[in-house]
Design brief:
heterodimer, A: alpha+beta, two-stranded antiparallel ribbon, 2 helices, extended, B: alpha+beta, two-stranded parallel sheet, 5 helices, about 40% helix, elongated
């Protein structure tokens, strides 16, 4: 399913035509074609606003959780570690 | 957990942070078959406390070793970086983006991330 649509001005990993998705992958996605198209369009719109390679990474301040994942109330600001390369991972449990 | 291994391998040369963002596949949203099979069934958090609870579950169940940062309920940082559903970035020391995965779950590639990090560090090795 790693098809990158060459017609998009940004790259996202969801093909424009849902019918090109293998049937077994499509079954696992549990969505209608219209829902898929709406989801993909929203993702393309979001990607247009994301920093491109070569652009400054947006600064931010977020709460930093404890090593066991508990809330601390302490914050972390990305610019506080300027001078060090950074790897960022975005995700959620589901 | 591969992400932990990569962070441990390069942790002396760069910093690693996880940003916990909005749920990719909540049960009251876009649920997926794989989550049902794995019993990962959670509704969309409606407060920062609920999101924090799920973030803690994530840290503990997946044994995340990197610092976890909690995105706010406006999804501010997720929106800035288009992190949804899962994404990897590499920033240089000046915090310019030098590499990122293709947006979308099929583009999430830890091995490509590791390769990009290795390449970046080699090309920017401090004498």
């Amino acid at each position: 399913m790693n098809q990158i649509d060459p017609h998009d001005d940004v790259q996202i990993a969801y093909p424009a035509d849902w019918r090109t998705i293998p049937p077994e992958k499509w079954a696992g996605m549990m969505m209608t074609p219209d829902e898929y198209t709406a989801m993909r369009d929203a993702r393309v719109a979001r990607e247009r606003k994301a920093p491109r390679v070569g652009a400054p990474a947006p600064n931010f301040t977020l709460e930093r959780l404890a090593i066991d994942g508990a809330r601390t109330g302490d914050t972390f600001t990305l610019s506080s570690v300027k001078g060090r390369p950074v790897g960022l991972i975005f995700g959620s449990y589901t | 957990m591969r992400l932990n291994e990569i962070a441990a391998q390069y942790g002396d040369q760069m910093d690693f942070y996880c940003v916990y963002i909005q749920e990719a596949h909540p049960d009251d949203g876009w649920q997926v078959d794989s989550n049902l099979k794995d019993d990962v069934i959670y509704d969309t958090p409606t407060s920062i406390d609920e999101r924090a609870d799920l973030a803690q579950t994530c840290v503990l169940r997946l044994n995340m070793a990197m610092p976890m940062l909690l995105d706010d309920m406006n999804d501010t940082v997720d929106t800035l970086y288009n992190g949804l559903p899962e994404r990897l970035y590499v920033l240089d020391a000046g915090h310019k983006v030098v590499w990122k995965t293709v947006a979308g779950s099929p583009g999430f590639d830890p091995e490509a991330w590791a390769d990009a990090i290795a390449r970046f560090l080699e090309e920017n090795e401090t004498p």
